[in-house]
Amino acid sequence: MFDFSFQLTGEYVAFFILAVCIIAGAVLMISFNKVIHMVVSLAFAFIGLAGMYVLLNAEFLAFVQVLIYAGAISILMIFGIMMTKHDQVDEDVRRPWHEGIVAVGCLALFGILFYAIRSTTFPTANWTPPKDNTLEIGKLLYTEHVIPFELMSVLLTVAFIGAIVLAKREAD
Amino acid sequence: MGTWLQEPLTWTNFAIFLAWGVVFLFIVLGFVTYAIYFERKVIGWMQLRIGPNRVGPLGLFQTLADIFKLLIKEDTIPRKADRWLFILAPVITYVPSFAVLVVIPYTDSLYFTDLNVGLLYYGALSCISTIGIILAGWASNNKYSLLGGMRSAAQMISYEIPLVISVVGVILLNGSLSLRTIVNGQGDYFWQWNFLPQIIGFVVFIIAAVSELNRTPFDLPEAESELVAGYHVEYSGFRFAFFMLAEYVYVFAIASLTTVLFLGGWHAPFPFLTFIPGIIWFILKFMFCVFFLFWLRATMPRIRVDQLMSFGWKVLLPLSLINVFVTAIYVELFIK
C-alpha cells in the first residue's frame, strides 16, 4: 500500500507542478482575507486544473475550462465584488477547539481517501486516444447526446431571456 | 519545426525550444518597437505632420529612446494601492498576450505547435488578459483607473462573443479548430480564401477585433479626455511599458490571426506566384492588417459609450449568428 515507486517522466514533473499550483491556489483562496485576493487565487487554481486536463489528453475541456472558469466566471466575480462593499475584510474569529475538531476531521477524510485510492486496482487497458478528440466530442454531442444538448440550450436560452426580462422590469 | 515537436523531451531539445522562444520574443519586441514608430509616422503623414524625426536617421531610434526612458524612470507604487495586485496585474496582462502567439502558423513548416483546438486556445487565453486589466484598475485605488478597468472589461467581454461566433463560419467550412488545417483548407486563388465566402464573418471579426484591442474607434477604456489615461493611470516606468507591450503584442496576434483565418495565411494570391516563399506572403498580408489598424486610428473618431454596447449586442451579435446559420445551411446543402 505504501509503495510509491514511479518513473520520473516529464508527465510526472508536470503533474506535480500543476498539483502544487492547484493546492496553492485553493489554500490561498481560503487563507486570504480580502475577497478580491481570493478570486485571483481561485483563478490560479482553475488554470492549474486546466493544465491537468491537458495532461489527460482533453485539450478541448482544458481550454473551455480556461475560457469559462478562469476567464468568464472570475471576471464576473470581480465585477460582483466591485459593485458591492469591497473594502470589508474578514474578521479573525478565534475558536480554538473548532480548529482541533476540524484537524481531526481532515485527517480522517485524508485517511479514508488514501485507503480507498491505494486499495483500488485500476484497470490498465491499452487505450490510445483518438487523433482528433475535439472532432469526436463534436460528433458524439450531435448524435448520441443530442437531446441533453438541446435541453441544455433551451434551459440556457430561458435563463438568458429571464435575466433580460428581470433587468427590464427593474429599469422601468 | 514539426519533426522536433514529436521527439522526446531531452535537455538538447529543451534548449532548442528555449532558444526558439527567446528568438521569437526578440522578433516580437522588435515588431512592437517599430510598429510604434511606424504608427506615429503613418498617422503623422495622414494628418499632414512629419512624425518623429529627431532621434537617429529619420527618427528610427525614437521608440528605443522612449523605451529606455521608461526603463530608467522611477517605479512608483501609490501608498493606498493594493501592493501585490498592483505588481501582479501587468504580468497577468502580458503573459497571455505572448502565449497566444504559440498557435499561429507562419508558414507550412514554421509553426510552434499545431493544437487541434488552436482557435479556442486563442480565445481562452486572451480572456485572461482582461482579468489583468480589471485588476490593474482595481488595485490602483483610483476612481479613474477603476472606471477605465470596468469599461475595458465590459467592452472586452461584450466583443469577445461576436469575435468568437464570427469565426464559427470558418470552422464550419474547414471542419477543424486547428489553425494550420484552416490555412491548408483555403485555396490557391485569392477568391478562394475565407474572406470572400465569409464576408459577413470577416467584417464582424475585424470590427470585434479592433474593439478587443481597445484601439480607436473603440478606445473608450483610455479615453484621455474623460478618464486621464484609463486603467493604467497610476502605473509608471516598466510596469506601464508592460501594458503598452501587451497591447502591441495583441496587435501582432490579431493581425496574424486575421491573416491565417481569412486572408489565406502563407498562400500566394495566384498559383503562378508560388515561387515567392510563403513567409513573404504571410509578412505582406500581416503588414497590411497592421497598417489597416493604424489607418483606422487616423480616420475614425471615438464612439460613445452607450453606442458601443448597443452596437456590440444589437448589431454584431445578430449578424454573426446569421452568418453561422447561413454557413451551416450552405455546408449542409452543397458540401456534404
TrEMBL record, chain A:
NCBIfam families according to UniProt: PRK06638.2-3
Reactions it catalyzes: a quinone + NADH + 5 H(+)(in) = a quinol + NAD(+) + 4 H(+)(out)
Keyword terms, alphabetized: Cell membrane, Membrane, NAD, Quinone, Transmembrane, Transmembrane helix, Ubiquinone
TM region positions: 12-32, 39-56, 62-84, 96-117, 146-167
Gene Ontology molecular function: NADH dehydrogenase (ubiquinone) activity; quinone binding
Function: NDH-1 shuttles electrons from NADH, via FMN and iron-sulfur (Fe-S) centers, to quinones in the respiratory chain. Couples the redox reaction to proton translocation (for every two electrons transferred, four hydrogen ions are translocated across the cytoplasmic membrane), and thus conserves the redox energy in a proton gradient.
Membrane topology classification: Multi-pass membrane protein
Family statement drawn from the similarity comment of this UniProt entry: Belongs to the complex I subunit 6 family.
A Pfam match: Oxidored_q3
Principal location class: membrane
Top-rank EC class of the record's enzyme: translocase
GO CC aspect terms: plasma membrane
Protein name listed in UniProt: NADH-quinone oxidoreductase subunit J
Localization: Cell membrane
InterPro entries: NADH_UbQ/plastoQ_OxRdtase_su6 (IPR001457), Nuo/plastoQ_OxRdtase_6_NuoJ (IPR042106)
Enzyme Commission number(s) from the entry: 7.1.1.-
Highest taxon of source: Bacteria
PANTHER family, sorted: NADH-UBIQUINONE OXIDOREDUCTASE CHAIN 6 (PTHR33269)
Automatic annotation (TrEMBL), chain B:
GO cellular component, one term: plasma membrane
Membrane topology of this protein: Multi-pass membrane protein
Alphabetical list of InterPro entries matching this protein: NADH_UbQ_OxRdtase_su1/FPO, NADH_UbQ_OxRdtase_su1_CS
EC number of the protein: 7.1.1.-
Enzyme class per UniProt: translocase
PROSITE patterns recorded: COMPLEX1_ND1_1, COMPLEX1_ND1_2
Cited PANTHER family: NADH DEHYDROGENASE SUBUNIT 1 (PTHR11432), NADH-UBIQUINONE OXIDOREDUCTASE CHAIN 1 (PTHR11432:SF3)
Family the UniProt entry places it in: Belongs to the complex I subunit 1 family.
Protein name (database record): NADH-quinone oxidoreductase subunit H
Species whose genome carries this gene: Paenibacillus selenitireducens
Protein encoded by which gene: nuoH
